[in-house]
Amino acid sequence: MTFALPLHDRLPPQELPLIAGLSLRNAAAEITGDDTILLKWPNDLLHDGRKLAGLLCERVSNVDLVGVGLNVNVDPADAPKDLRGQITSLFAIAGKSFDMTDVLLAVARHLRHDVRRRMEIPFQSFVREYCRHDALAGRRVTISSGGDEPPIAGRCEGIDNTGRLLVRRRSKVYAVVAGMVAIVSSSSGRSA
Question: pTM for the complete prediction?
Answer without folding.
Answer: 0.91
